[in-house]
Structure formats: structure tokens, C-alpha cells
Amino acid sequence: MAQHEQLAVKFLPDESDLLAEWRSMCERSTRIRFAYAWMGLGEHYAALPLEKVHRSVVGVEFAATDPAVIKALSVEPNRIHVIEPSDEVFHPKCVLSETAAGAEILIGSSNFTVGGFGKNVEANVLIRCSTGHSFAKQIAAFIDSLWDRGFDPPPAWIEEYSAAWQAREPRPRVLVPRLSAPAAIGLPEILALSWRDYYYFIRSLDGRRGEKGPIRVLSHNGKSYLDEIRACRAGFRSASSFAAISETERKRIGGLPPSNGCFGGMGAAALFKDAIHNRHHEVGKVLDLLPRDGDASDQDLALLISRLVALDGLAMTTASRLLCTKRPDLFLPVTTANKGAIKEVLGVRTDRPSDYLELHRGKLWKAPWFNSPRPTNHGEAEIWDARVALLDAAVRNWEAVRSHQN
Questions:
Q1: What DSSP line would sit under 161-210, residue for residue?
Q2: Architecture of 8-167 per CATH?
Q3: The whole model's pTM is what?
Q4: Cis peptide bond upstream of 258, omega within 30
Q5: CA-based angle 83:84:90, to the nearest 5?
Q6: Measuring CA to CA, how many Å separate 195 from each of 199, 242, 287, 373?
Q7: Which residues contact 399 (CB under 8 A, 6 or more apart)?
Q8: Which of 5, 38, 333, 403 is deepest in the core (most CB within 10 A)?
């Protein structure tokens, strides 16, 4: 490729970004051609302007493409070609859109389905360049070559395919071993786990159905517990004191936007917002007493927690958010979503600083997994470094986690 040729590339690992970019592509487009292994109805399909489709190449392996899509695309002649199933599985996913400004290419793992544009974990890239760019020409030639391999579906074939689609049986899902902790585990049992079993338990939560959707523990495009911890730790490392941290990062640390809401969102706490925004020097004088790593005495921690809660605008919930984002290896957040489970299952109230400290000193910090040596493996060590705070993923979703195990 010549050095003067320019490509603008945007990575789209998030399903909401993918759908938004797709809608914008369709609005800007003057002519579209694409090749997809599977196609289905949904928001992504509703955004597709059929009148702009120049060529579409569609696969029907496993009768997975919705016949309604084929019918709609075949209303106009020479707009769709279908690839017959063969020993060679048809598997491409790419779009070439021509606009007044040039060419836009969407390519990646997503099929043109609800899963591909919404539910699944996918990776796609949006590439912008001139229509004369060699890359745009290669994609056009690729789609055209697939077009030549397909056929224009006649009405009789579409009816036969529709019947086959209606009669298709769901593809069996092969069950593979899932990383999990011991069965029928309860919160008291969690406190008795070894580090290895606790590590497996925390990992096993990832992707499970929680109280408000999937539980995201591991990396997930900025939306998971670990993503939040990484971002907050980066904020703390960016300055020598809390007051010197940028306002945006102070807000994230405090559970305000751009926080992803893990460990408790504090958006409704107006006085706390004011403390983070206007009285950060006052908050910092207390929070800076907590070292970023290493030990602190019970006496020092008791004094620190009491002084935090005593500040105007702070309560046990908001103070615990600051503590757990600075030291996720030591502190569990107290939120409206988890305090009931803490009280019910562990028998500890969390309304006062003394109660909060007793939860940790009398229970969490005595757990074998808490007192285990730091692992040498990087991925395991990252969870160890946040081992207390990550328990929130289970506690705040306790009813869902418990029913899943039962």
C-alpha cells in the first residue's frame, strides 16, 4: 500500500457503539453492498435502508438467516444473492458503504443478527477511506466475487426455505466445564474458602445473570468491576494527593459519572457531589491518610473511617466507596444493593463506622483467602489485589447468585 493512502480505523468492541455507528453509516450512505453469513431482524435491520442496497450476499447455513430478510431484499431484482450450503462454510461479515465523502467499511466478527449487534461479545472495526483507496477496492472485489458464486432466489425457493426455517431444530449447545467454586456455597462458606477456591468463585460470577443484568467481573469494555478498579487506581496514581487528582477522575473514584456504577453509583447523593467537586481538599486531607498499599493499624483505620463519615456530605455508603476504590484489597463497599445481604447472611450492620470496621476486622480480614500470599500470575494477582472489593459482585447480586447455585 502506498504511504500517501490514508485509512481511518475505529475499533468497536462495544455493542452499543457498533449499533450507533451502523445507524450513522446507513444515514450517510448512498450505496451499500455487504456479505453476511447469517441475517436476522432487529434494530440493526430496521436501520438498513433497502433502497440503498446495491448488492447483498447472504448465507443460509443451518437455515439461520431469517427468510423475512431474504424476501425483503429480493423485492427488487439483482439485489440479493444466496450462497447455497456446501462443504465450505460461508462465513464472511463485511459491509462496504459509499458516501459523499468516500467509503466506509464495517468488518469483524458480528453476523447481521440481534446477537451480533447486541447480545454477544464481538469485535468489529469501522474503516474510512476514499472510494479509490486500494482497501476499498479489495473489499468491493471480494463482495463481487461472492456475488458471482450465489444465485438470485426465486419465489418458490424462498417459500421452501421459509418452511425449512420454520421447521429447523435448535442447534444443540455443547456443555463444556465451567470454572466454578464448590456447589451450594453461601456467604459464611465464602469466608472459609482457600485462595484458590475464592479465586474460582469470583471468576465464576462473570457473565452470570445478576439482579439487573449480567454480572461483569472481568474486563468488559470499561463496564466491569475490574475495569472500574483499574480506572480508579489510575486516578489515584495520577497525583500525590486526592485533591490534586483531576475533577473527572475524582468523580469516577466517588462513583459519579464517568464511573460505570460498579461498587455503587453515587449520582443521587447531592451533598456528596458537592464534597467531591468543591470540598475535595477537605476530603483529601482524610483520604490521603490511607496508604495506597501496605498495612495500617486498626486504630488508624478506625480513626480514618470515623473522620471520613463525619465530613459534610459523606455517609457510610459514600465513604466506603472512596475506601474500596483506593484500597480494594482491604475494603468492601456498602451500598443500598448489598447492605441487606450483609446484615442477613453475615449478621453485621453497616450503618456506623464501628460496624463497618467490625465487618472487616471480625470477618473478612480473617478469611483464608484474604491472608493468602499474593500470587505470581498476573491475572490472578490482579484479582488478589482487589479481593475484598470484588466480593461486592456476589453480595449485591446475592439472591441471583444463590438461586443459580441451587
A1: HHHHHHHPPPPPPPP------STT--HHHHTT--HHHHHHHHHHTTT-EE
A2: 2-Layer Sandwich (3.30)
A3: 0.68
A4: yes
A5: 60
A6: 6, 32, 29, 9
A7: 211, 341
A8: 333
222 Cβ contact partners less than 8 Å away, ≥ 6 residues apart: 14, 231, 260
C-alpha cell of 262?
Answer: 460498579
pLDDT over 90 (residue 51): yes
- HSE, side-chain direction, 13 A CA sphere, residue 264: 27
Distance (Å, rounded) from C-alpha 130 to C-alpha 125?
16
- Could you state, in order of their start, the residue ranges of all structural domains in the chain? 8-167, 187-405
CA dist 224 to 50, 120, 259, 272, Å? 37, 16, 10, 23
Neighbours of 247 (CB within 10 A): 11
Q: Hey, CA dihedral for 156, 161, 166, 169, is it positive or negative?
A: positive
Spatial CA neighbour of 212 closest among 397, 401, 404: 397
94 pairs with which residues across the strands? 35, 107
Name the phi and psi angles at 59, rounded to 5: -90, 155
232-276 per-position pLDDT tens digit: 999 999 999 999 999 999 999 999 999 999 998 876 677 888 889
For the residues 313-319, what does the mean pLDDT come to? Answer: 92
Classify residue 214 by burial, with Cβ atoms within 10 Å: 0-12, 13-18, 19+.
Answer: middle
C-alpha 176/C-alpha 198 separation (Å) is: 21
Q: How far is CA 272 from the centre of its chain?
A: 27
Sign of the torsion formed by the C-alpha atoms of 123, 47, 25 and 51: positive
Q: How many distinct helices (H) and strands (E) make up the chain?
A: 18, 9
What is the C-alpha separation between 160 and 67, in angstroms, rounded?
Answer: 10
